């Protein structure tokens, strides 16, 4: 039955940020009964990136408890027992349906009230659905989205049941590229569809994308660009059978995976807290304009010091670091102290097949492609520098060693000047290793 509770600290959300916040609370010192983590998921916080990668592998897939936070960054794995030992209440399978920031109280779907002194909002993102923009037939069975472990379990079952069948991936972003690869590894016949002229257009240049598209084609994945799914046909059991495209083509499909973007879960707080750029506006300590309320991870729009701009970031590295920053700031404030401003260097990465790339910094300005980006090479290694106002501001690298990845991160942080762009293209990685 619904039970009313009260805590000194509540983290709303049980994802990546929540796990790293819990660990930081434990480091700073938290007394039993002071902290609760509330999640609509049934499991303790875990490293979400595993869901689109090793979780779906055909052989020895990753499973919980293997990837609870904070293993993703090489840290301690926080099992459910850890929370019990620390006296942290892990309130699972509990969806908060109402938040009243004025009275510092949350209400669960079951009708329980949870009170707090300080709140950290860590509700993350949810998927954008094709039904959100009225795509016909989009509620057919075997059309999947991927956000939480429950979604991954359903997809995994379908993959097992449709071996040798046809899969259509709608979307050419992170989910599209990672799922296209993993479904192919599962022996499905994969076709990807996306509206843009090349994949991952928000980050990739045409030169970067050409490598991945070529590599995927060589793996036997069909790629259809410049069009969108406008409808789905299903059989008498309501299972998807075909994807209808705007350009008139019809693709057979036993499984469809949709990855057309995410949106931050901020609706609970509408009108109660200042927003910016689709997220909850915070300062450099992730404090919102409401006293004792913080926002971290995907939902936070924070000052990015390096670029002197408010930004929102939907990636795991920031989810981890923002959570740690917020908890440090919260604990410091109790002693009347402040901490250093968050000074974030954007870091994004992805892995698929034997590929692995990292990106640091800002993808603005002119670009210089370097290295071997032939998708048929046995050991391709290439990258791109972004140059703005005569300085390198962003670097992308496929297949870098740990040292090389460290070097490109350093360059993106230091923003060294570039005198000669042709020279930079020739030097390639050598340029980065000088710093
Ligand atoms: P996250 O989404 O992790 O957690 C939010 C939590 O809040 C969830 O547990 C949710 O159930 C809960 N919640 C929301 N509303 C609630 C409510 N009303 N009541 C109770 N609970 C509620 N990034 C990257 O850099 N590299 C990568 O490889 C990947 N890979 C990747 C794969 C997949 C499949 C996804 C979906 C995402 C990634 N990402 C990624 C992005 C990364 O995982 C993401 O940025 C972080 O998980 C964000 O962390 P948060 O804690 O903000 O949200
Ligand atoms: P995304 O924003 O990366 O990509 C969305 C893609 O959807 C666009 O690139 C476009 O190709 C496509 N698209 C848009 N409208 C479409 C339409 N009507 N029909 C077909 N395609 C359409 O979002 P995502 O891939 O769905 O990822 C969801 C969230 O998960 C994001 O926050 C992302 O950062 C995160 N994620 C990150 C990683 C990673 O960092 N490695 C991996 C997986 C997921």
UniProtKB/TrEMBL annotation:
Cofactor(s) listed in the protein's UniProt record: FAD
One Pfam family, short name: MDHAR3-like_C
Keyword Acyltransferase part of the UniProt annotation: no
Keyword Oxidoreductase set for record: yes
Enzyme class: oxidoreductase
Protein name in the entry: monodehydroascorbate reductase (NADH)
Coiled coil location: none
A single GO cellular-component term on record: cytoplasm
A Gene Ontology molecular function term of the record: monodehydroascorbate reductase (NADH) activity
Domain Monodehydroascorbate reductase 3-like C-terminal span(s) in chain numbering: 345-432
Residue ranges annotated for the FAD/NAD(P)-binding domain, each copy included: 7-322
InterPro entries found in the cross-reference section: FAD-oxidoreductase/Apoptosis, FAD/NAD-bd_sf, FAD/NAD-binding_dom, FAD/NAD-linked_Rdtase_dimer_sf, MDHAR3-like_C
């Amino acid at each position: 039955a619904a039970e009313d509770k009260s805590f000194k600290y509540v983290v709303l959300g049980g994802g990546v940020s929540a796990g790293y916040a819990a660990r930081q609370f434990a480091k700073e010192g938290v007394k039993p009964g002071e902290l609760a983590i509330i999640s609509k998921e049934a499991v303790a916080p875990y490293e979400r990136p595993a869901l689109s990668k090793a979780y779906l592998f055909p052989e020895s897939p990753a499973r919980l408890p293997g990837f609870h936070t904070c293993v993703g960054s090489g840290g301690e794995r926080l099992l459910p027992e850890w929370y019990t030992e620390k006296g942290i209440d892990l309130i699972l399978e509990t969806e908060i349906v109402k938040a009243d920031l004025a009275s510092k109280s949350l209400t669960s779907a079951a009708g329980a009230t949870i009170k707090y002194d300080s709140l950290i909002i860590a509700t993350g993102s949810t998927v954008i659905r094709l039904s959100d923009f009225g795509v016909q037939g989009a509620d057919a069975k075997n059309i999947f989205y991927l956000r939480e472990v429950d979604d991954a379990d359903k997809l995994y079952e379908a993959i097992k049941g449709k071996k040798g069948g046809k899969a259509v991936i709608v979307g050419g972003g992170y989910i599209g590229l990672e799922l296209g690869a993993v479904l192919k590894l599962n022996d499905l016949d994969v076709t990807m569809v996306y509206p843009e002229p090349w994949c991952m257009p928000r980050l990739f240049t045409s030169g970067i994308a050409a490598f991945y598209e070529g590599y995927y084609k060589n793996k036997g994945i069909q790629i259809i660009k410049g069009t969108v799914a406008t409808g789905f046909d299903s059989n008498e059991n309501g299972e998807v059978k075909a994807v209808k495209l705007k350009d008139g083509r019809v693709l057979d499909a036993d499984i469809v995976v949709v990855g057309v973007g995410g949106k931050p879960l901020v609706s609970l707080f509408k009108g109660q807290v200042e927003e910016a750029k689709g997220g909850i506006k915070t300062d450099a300590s992730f404090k919102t304009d409401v006293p004792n309320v913080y926002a971290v991870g995907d939902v936070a729009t924070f000052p990015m010091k390096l670029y002197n701009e408010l930004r929102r970031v939907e990636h795991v590295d920031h989810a981890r670091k923002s959570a740690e920053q917020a908890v440090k700031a919260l604990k410091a404030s109790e002693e009347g102290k402040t901490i250093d401003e968050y000074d974030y260097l954007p870091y994004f990465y992805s892995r698929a097949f034997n590929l692995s790339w990292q990106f640091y910094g800002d993808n603005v300005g002119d670009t210089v492609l370097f290295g071997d980006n032939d998708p048929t090479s046995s050991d391709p290694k290439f990258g791109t520098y972004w140059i703005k106002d005569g300085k390198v501001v962003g670097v992308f690298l496929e297949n870098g060693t740990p040292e090389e990845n460290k070097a490109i991160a350093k360059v993106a942080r230091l923003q060294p000047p570039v005198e000669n762009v042709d020279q930079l293209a020739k030097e390639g990685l050598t340029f980065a290793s000088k710093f």
